[in-house]
Amino acid sequence: MHPMKLKFILAAFLFSALSAFSPAHGDDAGPAIPLPPSTGFVPQDAIPTLPGIFNVRDYGAKGDRQTKDTDAFQKALDACALYGVTHSNGEVRVPKGNYLLGSVVLGPNTTIRLDADAYITESPNLADYPIIQARFEGEMTDCHRSLFYANHADHIAILGPGGIYATSSLCFPSNRNPRAPCVFEPVDCFDVLAENFSLQYDDPASGQRSDMWCIHPNFCSKFTARNLYIRSQLGNGDGLDIDSCSDVVIEGCDISTGDDAIALKSGRGMEATRMGRPTTDVTIRNCQLHSVIFAAVAIGSEISGGIRNVDIHDCTLSGVQNAIFIKSRQGRGAFIENFTGEDLVIESSPTFIGINLVSTGIPATEPVPGPLYDWTIVRNLNFDGVEVKNVQTLIGSSGGQDTPPEISPDAPILGFTLNNITGTCQKGIFLDNVANAHFSKILVKGFSGNLLNLTNVTGTGLENPTASAR
């Protein structure tokens, strides 16, 4: 038999055999997950020089920013996913160059490594981002598939030190119907890593700006973002939107965005309530987070799956409206609980903590019905070791206003601790409808009026909040 014919038969047999495997998702084996669609067998001259290394140049990528390299990238990703079924993780290597891409799909056990001076530029053709069903603002809807997309693909990564730039492709005039593509959107994946690359979602030269989230992990567990540099400039240009995910670590990131630098979400209305997929166990540490329009860290408003166990420490936060914004509305239901901030620096923000649990965000298509379950239950907010610099209002509704947060008396905050708060602010704390508050060592200076402006608040330290806790 001719050697090339034999290679073709063996390749076909291998692909058929591997397709029968269904890798486990997380710790539990789930239903069979199909591999990404194959774009063809590995060309004879594209066998990796090193086992498990798949260089996109070997699959036809030009890297000249003129030739569309989507097909070449997808072939390399498909080959890597096949390799990963019977081996350890494979790596798709992106060498120096500027690669013009539309949407591509990562399979399991796949790492994309952007070498130094390797850049991805998104295709400006909207047709290069197929329509799929994905979550946007808390509900499943038609969406353009992201630039880098993965679904039920465990053990995946995008690594630097290269960069990803959206110059004109993802900044479409309308991003809602259908939703414009994100840059990286892993869905229902276990063990996801985004590390050590830059992401710029605007184009200063052309005047175009971002209008969609940058990175949106959805229903993922064990998601890590480390040493990322993210920039965007317009509303809806969130940096990281963590959506119904668990075991999340965000560390060493420098994020300055048009919308929230980091937003924690878990869906909107009864659709999310039925799914029951909260965002849980999130650590944010050693980060510089800034928003030019909204908040450095936002909790909600799509929180109908619940948010639990969030720890932010050793970070510098600043937002044009709030450093931290806790937001929901009637009809969201669910809970926000065990939120801790320690060793934080708050710079040039109208409000250190803004709270609106009554009227923020878009109403759900099917709101959570009342009267008992339509309000979001917030409990155990704890802040210790916070320095505020050039802050207008320490705690209030939003945007530096000297008005109490919108908190329903039917669903008061249950547990709110402030300890060792220093620095300067123009106005103090405006708070209502809180039970079990604990204030101690609030030593801010420069404010006018009363430090505490409270209504229907019970707890300790309310008479002398500058004293140490007993």
How would the global form be characterised? elongated
Beta-strand residue fraction? 35-45%
Low-confidence stretches: 1-49
Q: How many runs of DSSP E, i.e. beta strands?
A: 33
Oligomer: single chain
| Helix share, percent | under 10%
Average the pLDDT over all residues and give the rounded result: 86
How far apart the termini lie comes to 87 Å
Q: Cα-atom Rg, whole angstroms?
A: 24 Å
The total number of structural domains is 1
Count of helical regions: 3
Q: Looking at CATH, which topology would you report?
A: Pectate Lyase C-like
Fourth-level CATH superfamily: Single-stranded right-handed beta-helix, Pectin lyase-like
CATH class: Mainly Beta
Second CATH tier, the architecture: 3 Solenoid
| Major beta sheet summary | 26 strands, parallel
Sheet/helix structural class: mainly beta
